[in-house]
Amino acid sequence: MSLDRVRLARAYLSRVAEPPAPALAAFVAEEGPVRAAELVKAGKVPSSVEGQTSARRAEDRAADDLRRVAEVGGRLVVPEDDEWPEWPFNALVLAAAQGLRCGLAPLALWVRGKANVAELAERAVAVVGSRAASGYGQHVAAEFGHGLAEAGIVVVSGAAYGIDGCAHRGALSAGGVTIAVLACGVDVAYPAGHAGLIARIPERGLVVSEYPPTHTPARHRFLTRNRLIAALGDGTVVVEAGRRSGAKNTAASTSALGRVLMAVPGPVTSVSSTGCHDLLRSGEAIAVSTVAEVIESTGRLGVDLVESTRRSETTVGPPQGDAVRVHEALGLVGGNSADVIAVESGVALSTVRALLPALEMAGLAERVDSGWKRSHAQDRCGDA
Amino acid sequence: MSLDRVRLARAYLSRVAEPPAPALAAFVAEEGPVRAAELVKAGKVPSSVEGQTSARRAEDRAADDLRRVAEVGGRLVVPEDDEWPEWPFNALVLAAAQGLRCGLAPLALWVRGKANVAELAERAVAVVGSRAASGYGQHVAAEFGHGLAEAGIVVVSGAAYGIDGCAHRGALSAGGVTIAVLACGVDVAYPAGHAGLIARIPERGLVVSEYPPTHTPARHRFLTRNRLIAALGDGTVVVEAGRRSGAKNTAASTSALGRVLMAVPGPVTSVSSTGCHDLLRSGEAIAVSTVAEVIESTGRLGVDLVESTRRSETTVGPPQGDAVRVHEALGLVGGNSADVIAVESGVALSTVRALLPALEMAGLAERVDSGWKRSHAQDRCGDA
C-alpha cells in the first residue's frame, strides 16, 4: 500500500466527516484508511459511520485539497508518516478509549511549514488565554512565549487575538519556534488581523489543523481544536481567562489528557484573571509566575530537575471500553503478541496496536520480549 | 483561690519571662499560677525555669501593670476567665505538645476594649501581609476587611503599616469588629503612625498582647506574636507578601496550627505578591479572590452556606451535538437549504431535517423563503 494512496485516502476522510467523528475513526482503525475511504464513498458502512459521513461522502476533493495545501507550502501528515506525533497523540487515543469527549486523535494533520511535527512536539508547552486580554495578560503571554522559546521550548497556541497572538509573537521575537493550531484550514488566515502572524509562523514553526483547506472556523471547531493544543504540549499555561473563556475548555482537556495544567495569577480585581483563579482555587492548575516555574512544572524526569508533585494527581482513571478488554488480554506472566491480544480481547488489531503504547504510558502494560504483559501498576485500577 | 490572686500571679508571670517560655508554661500548668509565681519569686524552680526567669524574677510589677492597663481601658484576661479563648488557643497547646515552635498558649492576655475575647474569636479570620504593600494590595486588604466585617466576621491582624492597617480600617469602615494583636504592650502605640487606628479599634473590638504594658516591640516579638494572629482566626488570608515577608511566618504558623491558609493572587510582575504565589504554587495556601471565597474556605459546616455557583459551572467540553453544527451552518443573512446545511455541517441530511424544527422551537433558527437562517437568539451562543 503506497503512502500516496494512504495520504489521498486520509485527505478524503479528513473532509468527509466533521471531527470529532469517533465512529469513523474506529472504522478507519479497523479497515485501514484506503479501504475505509472506499467503503465510505460507496456508502457501505455501519449506520454509526453512515450518520457521520452521508452528508459529504459524495464530495471527494482529496486531490484538490492536497494540491491546495501544497500551494501554501504545506502538506498532509498522516499517522503512517514518521513525523506523526505518535507520543503526544497517544493521550488522545487513551482518552477516547475512556470515553472522554476530548479524546480521539485526528485522522490526519494538515500542516504548513517545513519542520518535523513529531520533533517539534517533543518539547512543547501550550500557552493560551482570552482574546479579550488585559495589557497585563498580553505582557505576561509575550514574556512567557519569549522565555520558553529562549529555553528551546516550542510554544503551542491557537493564533487567536489576545493571549494566543502574544504568546506566538513572544516566541518569534526570541527567534524561537511556535506551533499554531487552527480551527480552520491552514490556508485560511483566521483571524484576518493575524494573517501576517500566521504567514510568519511556518518559517521556522508550524501551522497545523485537522480541518482540510478552505474550511472556515466555527464555534464547535474551536472547542474541538483545543484538545489538539492540549495534546501537543507537555502542559498548558492559562495566562488569562474569564470565567467562561474558551481557554477553560483547553484547560479541561489538558487535565483530562493527563498533561500538566498551569495558571498565571493576576490581580483579583481583574475579570480577565477570574478563570485562572478558579483553576488555582480548585487545585486543577498549578500556579506559575515565571518561565522557570513553567519549565519546572512540565519537566520530564531526567530532563528537568523537578518533577511536579501534583502531576501524579492528574493521572487518568481506570481504562474503559476497548482499553479494558485489551488490558484484560495482556499476559500475566509472559507477554502476548498484539495478534493474540486482538483475538483474546475481540478488539480490532489496529485498535490494539494504538492502545498498547497508551496503556504503557498509563503504567498498565509493559513490553517484554514475547510481546506485552500487564505491568504491576495494574493494582491502581482497583475494581476497574 | 480568688480570681484576683490568680490575675495578680499571672500578671507577674507574664512579665517575668520572655515568651515563648515553654519551661515556665509547663511549670505553671503543674503548680498552678499562684504557687508557681511564689516559687519563681523565691527562685525555687527547676533549672530550665530558672534560666527563663532569673533575670526578671525580682521585678514584681504586677499590681502596677494591672493599674496601668486599666488606665487605658484594658484588663488582663487569664485562662481561668470565662472569656479566655480556650478553643482557639487549644491549637497552640496541641502544637506545643508536638514540639512545634509556633505552639504554646500565652500565660495571660493583656486586652484593651470591652468586648468578650472568646466571643470575638468565635468567628474570626486573620488578614495579614507586607508592610511594604502595593496600592493593589492595600486596596484588596481594605476590601476584604470591609467585606468580612459586613459578613459579621471579626478581622484579626497585626496593626502594622501596609496590609494590616488596611484590613483593620476596612473592618472599621464597615462598622465591624477587628482585633489587633500587638508585639508590644497594649498601651504602646506602635507603629506611631497607627496611634489613631490603635485607639479606635477597642471602641468595638480589641487590642491584645501577651506582653505586659510598656513593653516595646522587638523583631523576635513580632514573630512570637504571629502565632496568636494565626490562632485567633479560623484561617489566615495573606494579601501580599514578599518572598521574605513576616507574613510568611504567620502563614507557616497558620498551617502548623491546622488553620486554613489562604493567599490572594496578584500580578506576577509585582514582587509584593511573590510570597503569595509561592504559597499557592506549593499548595500550602488556597487561592482566594473574594470575601465570599474566604468565607467558603473558612466556613464551619452548617454555619455558612457555601456559595457554589462556580462548582456547578463545569467547563464545557466540545459540543458534540449535531444541533450545534447544524446551527453553525445556518445562513447568517439569507437562508440555506437543508441539503446545503447537511454538507456544511457534515451532519446527515435526515438528522438535519429532524433538528431544524427543534432549533426553530428553541429560537435558534428561523424559516425564510430561501431555507433556514439563524435567528437573533444566536447571541446566546457567545463567540468561541
Automatic annotation (TrEMBL), chains A, B:
GO biological process: DNA-mediated transformation
TM spans (from-to): none
Domain of life: Bacteria
Annotated ranges, domain Smf/DprA SLOG: 77-297
InterPro entries given in the database record: DprA (IPR003488), DrpA_SLOG (IPR057666)
A Pfam family that the UniProt record links to this protein: DNA_processg_A
Family in the record: Belongs to the DprA/Smf family.
Descriptive protein name: DNA-processing protein DprA
Gene that encodes the chain: dprA
